[in-house]
Design a protein that fits this description.
It is built from ten helices and 17 strands. By secondary structure, the chain is of the alpha/beta class. The strands form three sheets. It has a ten-stranded mixed β-sheet, sandwiched between helices. A hairpin with a 2-residue loop joins strand 16 and strand 17. Helix 3 packs parallel to helix 4. The two termini are about 25 Å apart. About 40% of the residues are buried. The model has no long low-confidence stretch (mean pLDDT about 95).
C-alpha cells in the first residue's frame, strides 16, 4: 500500500461516519498530513454542515503548518457556493500546496471544477487514488448523478416454499414470515435511505406505517404509487411521522406533509416515477412493495441491490414471491431467517 493509499483509506473510514446523516450530499473524509504526521482530520457530519475539508482544517492549531502540508480527501473539493462556501477556496486560502483526491465529484456543479480551481491556484493535485473504493462508498450519490435516478434497493421476505403472503381478504393481517432480528434490520435499512416505496395494494391491504419506529433513526420519505387515489385518507401511510409523495394520475397538490404528484401512467411508468424522485433530489429508495411492484422493477432491470429474507416456514399456497435468478453476493443468518443479498454490477 502506498503512502497516498494509506491516507485515502483513512479518509474513507472517516467519511463512512456520515452514513445516513449527509444525504443528499456525499460522504467525504479528509486528513491533513505534515511531515508524515496527521495534524487535522474531519468528515462531513450532517447535511448543511461544514464539509470534510473545513472540519479537517479547523482543528489545526498552528495554521502556518498548512502551507507545508498535504491534504487528502476522498472526493473532489467543491468549487461553488451551496449551503457552505467552496472548500477549494479554503484550501487555497491556507496555502496548502498539495492535494490528493480519491475520486472526481460526478455532480455537474462540481465535476472537475474543484480540481481546476486548485491547479489554477498553484496546487499540485493527484487524483484517482483508491478511486473504486471512493466511488463504492458513495454509490447512491454516483448512481443519482450518472443515471439520473435514485439508487434502488429491492427488499422482500418469503417462505421456504417461495410465497410472500397468503391469499388474503380485506381486513386480514399479512402473514408474518420473519422474526425480530430481520424486522429490526429492515427498520435500520429504512433509516439509511432517503425514501421507501410501496404500491396501492400494499398500502391498502397492509396499511403500513413505513417508519423506523423499531430503531433509532430518521424515517424515510414515503413514496406510494396510487394512480386513481384509492388509498383511504385515514391510512397509516399518511400519518405525520414523515413526508409522503403520492404519484398519481389525477392531481398536483400539497396537503400538510403530503405531496400529490400527477404523472403519466402510459409507457414506462416506473421510469417516470424515478424521474419524479430525481427531480426531488431523492438519491436512494428502498422498495418494500408487493409482488406486482417488485416484479415490475425486476423485469425492467431497474434495481441496484436486492435483499431477500427467507424463513423455514412453509404455507403450501399463496402469493408467489418474485422469481430472482441472479447470483448472490452474500448470504448470512438473521436470527432464524436467512438474508441473501444481491448487488447488480
Amino acid at each position: 500500500m502506498s503512502v497516498h493509499e494509506k491516507y485515502i483509506k483513512k479518509c474513507l473510514k472517516l467519511a463512512a461516519k456520515g452514513f445516513g446523516s449527509v444525504a443528499p450530499n456525499p460522504m467525504v473524509g479528509c486528513v491533513i498530513v505534515h511531515k508524515g504526521k496527521i495534524i487535522g482530520e474531519g468528515y462531513h457530519e450532517k447535511y448543511g454542515g461544514p464539509h470534510a475539508e473545513i472540519n479537517a482544517i479547523n482543528p489545526v492549531k498552528k495554521k502556518e503548518l498548512l502551507k507545508g502540508s498535504t491534504l487528502y480527501v476522498s472526493l473532489e473539493p467543491c468549487a461553488h457556493h451551496g449551503k457552505t462556501p467552496p472548500c477549494a477556496d479554503a484550501i487555497l486560502k491556507y496555502g496548502i500546496k498539495k492535494v490528493v483526491i480519491g475520486s472526481v465529484d460526478p455532480n455537474p456543479l462540481v465535476k472537475g471544477k474543484g480540481i481546476a480551481k486548485l491547479i489554477h491556484g498553484g496546487c499540485d493535485v493527484i487524483t484517482g487514488v483508491l478511486e473504486k473504493e471512493c466511488m463504492d462508498l458513495n454509490k447512491r450519490f454516483f448512481t443519482f448523478h450518472s443515471e439520473k435516478r435514485p439508487y434502488i434497493i429491492l427488499k422482500w421476505a418469503m417462505t421456504k416454499d417461495g410465497f410472500m403472503d397468503i391469499n388474503r381478504q380485506m381486513g386480514e393481517k399479512p402473514l408474518k414470515i420473519t422474526g425480530a432480528q430481520a424486522n429490526k434490520l429492515s427498520h435500520t435499512w429504512r433509516s439509511e435511505e432517503q425514501a421507501i416505496m410501496v404500491g396501492t395494494n400494499t398500502a391498502v391491504m397492509d396499511n403500513p406505517k413505513l417508519t423506523t419506529r423499531n430503531v433509532k433513526g430518521r424515517s424515510p420519505v414515503r413514496i406510494v404509487i396510487d394512480r386513481n387515489l384509492s388509498i383511504p385518507a385515514n391510512s397509516n401511510i399518511f400519518s405525520n411521522f414523515a413526508s409522503v409523495v403520492v404519484l398519481n394520475a389525477k392531481k398536483n397538490a400539497k396537503q400538510g406533509n403530503i405531496e400529490f404528484v400527477k404523472m403519466k401512467f402510459k409507457g414506462n411508468v416506473l421510469g417516470s416515477a424515478m424521474t419524479e424522485l430525481y427531480k426531488r433530489n431523492i438519491q436512494s429508495v428502498i422498495v418494500e412493495g408487493g409482488a406486482k411492484l417488485l416484479n415490475s422493477f425486476i423485469e425492467q432491470g431497474l434495481w441496484d441491490e436486492a435483499r431477500l429474507f427467507s424463513s423455514g416456514t412453509k404455507i403450501g399456497a399463496g402469493i408467489k414471491a418474485p422469481a430472482f435468478s441472479y447470483k448472490a453476493t452474500s448470504k448470512i443468518k438473521a436470527g432464524n431467517d436467512t438474508l441473501t443479498q444481491y448487488v447488480r454490477k
